[in-house]
Every structure is written in structure tokens, then in C-alpha cells.
Amino acid sequence: MYSVGGISATIYTNRLRAEGMGSKEQAVLFANQNYEALKQQCVESGCLFEDPCFPAELPSLGFKELGPHSSKTRDVVWMRPTELTNNPQFIVSGATRTDICQGALGDCWLLAAIASLTLNERLLHRVVPHGQSFEDDYAGIFHFQFWQFGEWVDVVIDDRLPAKDGELMFVHSAEGNEFWSALMEKAYAKLNGSYEALSGGSTTEGFEDFTGGVSEMYELRRAPRDLYRIISKALERGSLLGCSIDVSAEHTATPPRSMVHHPERTIYIKSTSVYFCDKEFILVCSNYAYVSIQITSAFDMEAVTFKKLVKGHAYSVTGLKEVGFRGRMERLIRVRNPWGQVEWTGAWSDNAPEWGQIDPSEREDLHLKMEDGEFWMSFSEFLKQFSRLEICNLTPDALSEDSLSHWNTIKFYGAWRRGSTAGGCRNHPNTFWINPQYKITLLEEDDDPDDNEVACSFLVALMQKDRRRFRRQGQDMHTIGFALYEIPDEYRGCQNVHLKKNFFLSHSSCARSETFINLREVSTRLRLPPGEYLIVPSTFEPSQEADFVLRVFTEKQSATEELDDEISADLGDDEEITEDDIDDSFRSMFTQLAGEDMEISIRELRTILNRVITRHKDLKTDGFSMESCRTMVNLMDKDGSARLGLVEFQILWNKIRKWLVIFRQFDLDKSGAMSSYEMRLAVEAAGFKLNNTLHQILVARYAENEMIDFDNFICCIVKLEAMFRSFQQLDTEGSGVAEMNLTQWLYMTMCG
């Protein structure tokens, strides 16, 4: 439910972001815990830190496989490194890939990302701040910094780690006395709610959370010709690289409904069912999401190929090399298994005969070590054996070209809310238009002398927020994607407009994400002619709620903004009528209802309206509440008596009759109630233009199961008119800004 308090918090957060909060220099404090202050308290008190926000208790481990009643968590003891070894070290001789050996947790995707991070010391120490150790002022407290959905976050932990039989349960170093990687894993688990929340994922997720970069993915069966050069340039720039092999069908859960588009028609594929529709072409993409979730340790040998490559497992790419071999140059690639063991046994593996046929100095330069989890293989064999390569570019420049020109970047924080902004994909034309909409203006074409096409390169990346934290409640990633539309001439240059259903019924998308898929982020690189385009991010199905970050990277000059209706109201002038204008039948009805004082109280108004509304059998209603009737009286009451006279009641009656016509007009299925998106159109027809946030508030306040009955609709319209009229009275100069003192504020909110 989207509350007014939530809106206030959002406004406050946006203000802090504008002041630099969330930047690398001013990281957000997770759970408002300040590392320096907490450490100082511990040093002064002589007590080791115990984290109340992520306690050394079973719920911190997990909720299902690692839940409190699981056999896997029986006999778990939380131990500090000082209890595990006599000489614990934070980092020994620099952080290296061998410091990261996977334990009994299916987070190989994360560990592959951490292993890649060790190749770039500057990047590593953005995540693992300097100055931490078990010697100087040791207080059992450490901290790490991660990029989360557009912001850097500082996460504090204590150093109590889960262990069994005196051994760490999860990630550990090969030496056994180096603890930076285990503590970093714990901090990331805290950030996501538990250790179990880290089970299964995409390496790009870890890549981006360690760098704030942007990722791209290559299917190696369709690898570009220059992929070797792309990898080489990525490694030179310090980019992080991961790879994996598709798991066989018996190791894969039922795939999500995912899609790519074609402008002709739609095909849904789920399991073995195929359905045809008439707008877009939809195809399942079954390979990306959580293929590693079924494989959690080196003992799942059924997933290991005969040459010791593990299917559904995340590896990191750590190097490239060309060597002279049999009179020609052989391209080699170095890959690391975060297990620290189970290595490739084919050509160019640690014991392979090929090494005896190259120059000894070259062999020495490649640092062969037996069974350390890292191995070499030929690049051509790599393309055959592996299915997918993921690259996280540290800055969004020159993703696959030689140019190093800087990209322009922009990000938006948005939300899908049930009934107001969660419209689902294009397959749901009645609701697709209610999704948030963003305009991108491409101003300059690319500078590419070898390309005759007039086009602008840009990348769109859509990321859903905080989904791992909801696993404890049985939720997970939504299936997400986005579509782009060319903005027609009549809407060019417009900002305060939210395009409606008819636009999307008559216009096809000009570009789209390659898939709708249940990964945290979907990103696609695009090229379009200069012009104005609309980006519509969505979940696959309607009514799925999530917060998201939309990032847009453009090569050349561009402008990007959210499209949203400008808040306004066409109230018209107050109806001018006198008692002489009121017909005798209405006057007679009023006399009977009002009683001797000839005024209608709030309670009497409620009785009248509920009596009348029961005669309209086509309307669904629970009846008007005292609150809604009080709002109506306050709207019409001119003398502060909290009662309505004859003229005031006549004006209110006329308004209700007008709103009844609108309600029936937009109750399209004649069900007697309006859906939340029908209400959005009805509110506009009643004269009110609102933005997405206000529509979210209305749905939260007046809808039940995304449906609005007649009395709630009337109450909503009355409330809107009352608030707009109150503002107009305060905005005496018509400037769009009103000033009020505390007394005025309290009067308006208490009486509204």
C-alpha cells in the first residue's frame, strides 16, 4: 500500500539525492549504522561489536533450505575469526582469486564476481575500504560498500561467522586464516536479508553491485566475430567478466514467461502450451534465470561434464594470452571456478601436453598452478564449451567499439503499483498505458566514418529493486522488460502528457528489450535515428508491484525526462443559483428531509444518499460513510455551520448527478464498479489531471482489490475538488505556490 507517509519519505529521499547522498563519497548508511561511531564506542567500552540488525541467529542464515528448522543449520555455531584461528588476517599480501572458495551456499555467481574484482585493486578497495584489520583497534566490526539501485550503501557487520565443526560454512580462503571474502559475503547477505537470499543469480548482479557499472551479455553460440578483441579490451579497462554453461533440462526449473517482440502477432509459450494473439511476438527465453540454483557444491557431480566443466555454474574470466604453438599463434583464455577445484581437463588444462610445446618463458609467464580452480583453455574451445559471457563495463563508454568517448548518463527511480502504474506488457492493452513513461530525445548522430546510417547509439537498462529481500515472504524476481515508441509529431516537445490507451493501440514499438525475463536487470543496446522516443518499462504481467531504476546511456548529446500529466483541475466557477431557481419537487423533498431547522446535517445527508443509491440497482456500493458525507458538507458549507441549506444541497445534488453520468460512462463492462485504470480516465473526465504518484495515492485510499465502487468514487472526486479549491484560496496570485501558517495548515487538513 502506497501511503502518504511513503510519499513524504520519497520527497525527502529525492532531496537527499540532489544533495549528493548515495554517491561514492557520501554513501547511504544501511540501517543508519555509522561504522566509525560504532567502532569508537566499542573501542572505548572494550566490548566486541554485536550487530543488532543482523544478529548471530538462525533467521540470518535463511528461511527455507537454511531456515531455523532445516537439518543444514543444525549445530551451527557463530564464531569470530579470532576463535577460528590463532592468527586471523583481514587481507594477506593483497586480495587474490584464491581467497574465494565456495562453501555450502549456491552463490557461485557472487563469488565469480568477487574473484573478478580482485583483478582491479582500485575497484576492490571501493568495496573493501582500507584500514581494516584484526590488529589495530580491533573491535569485531567491519564495513563494506556496495552499489544498490543507483546508490552506494555502507554496510556494517560484526565478524561472527557461521561455522560447523570449527570450519566456515560458506566462502573461505584457501589458506584458512584470511577473512575479507567471508566478511564481505556476510555484509552482502545482510544487505539482501539473509545468506539464503544469495542462492542463485546472475554474475552481472554481483558485477554491478561492486562497480555501479552497466552489463551486457553475449550468447556464445552467436558470438560476434570480434569477441576476442571485445574481451581483451574489457580486461584492459578493468571490466568484470563471467561465463556459464547452460544447465540441462533436468536441472532447470520451469522457465518464466519471457519474451522478445515482433510487430506482427504474439505467441505465448509456457511449458508446452502455445497461444496466438494479435499484437506482438513473444518467445520464451529459458536459459538465463537462476540456472545455478540447483547446483550448490562440488558434490553435485551429475552436473559436471566428462572434461570437468560444471553446468549451470558461474565462472569468472580472468585473462587472455596468445602463445606460439606449432608454428602459429594460439589464442588462450583463463577461467576460474570459485569452488577452488574441479578444473577443465581438456587441451591446455594444467597437465595437458600442449604446455610442453611452447616456449618455457611463455609457460612460466602464465603461472600454472595445479587444482587452484583456475585454468587455461583455447579460445575456440571456450566458445564451444561455454554458453554465455557476461561483461560489466565500469563506465558506460565504448561497450564494443574502439572509441573511448564518454557516454551521457541519466537514471530515474520509479515504481509499479497495483492499480495505478503496474500495467503489464503490451499484451495487456487495457492497462499497458498506465505504466510509467519516459521520454528520450536523441539529438546527435554517432561519429562513425565507416557507418553510412544516420543513427544514435544508446543503452537502456531496467533494474527491479530489493527482490531478494522478499524471498523470505515467498516472492522473487518479476519478469520485466521495456518497449520504445517513436513520439508522433503532435506530442513532440510535450512534457506534461501521459500517453493513453489509444496511442498504444495505433502505434507499434520501434525497439524493445531483447527479452522479458526474471532477472534483476534487463539491458539492451540500441541504435535509432535522431528524434524523440518514449520508453515504457513494465512487468510481464499486470498488477505486479516493485520499485525500479531505469538507466539510459547515450553516446552523444541527449535529453531525458519522465512524461507525466501536469497536475491541474478544471473546476469552473461555482454554480450560481438562488432559491428561486429550485423547482418545487426538489424543494418539497428537501423540506421533508431537512426537518424544522431547514438544514441537512452530516448524518441526515448520509441517510438521504444511501436511500437514493439503493434505488440504482446497477451500482455497486457499500453505502456512503460518515467521513465521505463530512467531506461533502465541508466542500459545500459556506458559513461554517457544518450543515447544508437548500441552495447548497441543490448544488451538491447537481454535482453528484454529473459524477454519476461519468461513473457509468467509464464503467465499461457495466459491472457497477470501475477498475482502477477506468477510474484514472474517469477522474480526468471529471476535470482533474493528476500525476502517477497521486494516482497511486487514490488507488491506495479508495480502491479495494483494484476496484472502486460508486460511493468511493464520489468521495474521491469530492475530496479532490475540496483540496483544489482550498489551494486556490491560498494561492491568491495564481502563481502555483501557496503559503500558509500552522493554523491554516491544521484547519485545512482537519476539515478536508
Topology summary:
Elements: H1 4-18, E1 28-29, H2 35-45, H3 58-61, E2 77-79, H4 81-84, H5 108-117, H6 121-127, E3 141-148, E4 151-158, E5 161-164, E6 167-168, H7 180-192, H8 203-211, E7 214-219, H9 227-236, E8 240-244, E9 266-270, E10 273-277, E11 315-325, E12 328-336, H10 360-365, E13 374-378, H11 379-385, E14 388-393, E15 408-416, E16 437-442, E17 456-464, E18 480-486, H12 501-506, E19 511-512, E20 521-528, E21 531-539, E22 546-554, E23 558-563, E24 568-569, H13 584-594, H14 602-613, H15 626-636, H16 646-666, E25 674-675, H17 676-685, E26 688-689, H18 692-702, E27 707-708, H19 710-730, H20 742-751
Parallel strand pairs: 1-4
Antiparallel strand pairs: 2-5, 3-4, 5-6, 7-14, 8-11, 8-14, 9-10, 11-12, 12-13, 15-22, 16-21, 16-23, 17-20, 17-22, 18-19, 18-21, 24-26, 25-27
Helix pairs in contact: 5-8, 14-15, 15-19, 16-17, 16-19
Can you put this structure into words, describing what you see?
The strands form eight sheets. A six-stranded antiparallel β-sheet has the order 7-14-8-11-12-13. A five-stranded antiparallel β-sheet has the order 19-18-21-16-23, with no helix packed on it. A hairpin with a 2-residue loop joins strand 3 and strand 4. The longest helix is centred in the C-terminal third of the chain and has 21 residues. The N terminus is likely disordered. It has 752 residues and is α+β, with helices and mostly antiparallel strands. Helix 5 crosses helix 8. The protein has four domains: 209 residues, no CATH class; 140 residues, Alpha-Beta Complex (Cathepsin B, Chain A); 158 residues, Sandwich (Jelly Rolls), CATH 2.60.120; 183 residues, EF-hand (Recoverin, domain 1). It is 28% helix and 20% strand. The protein contains 20 helices and 27 strands.
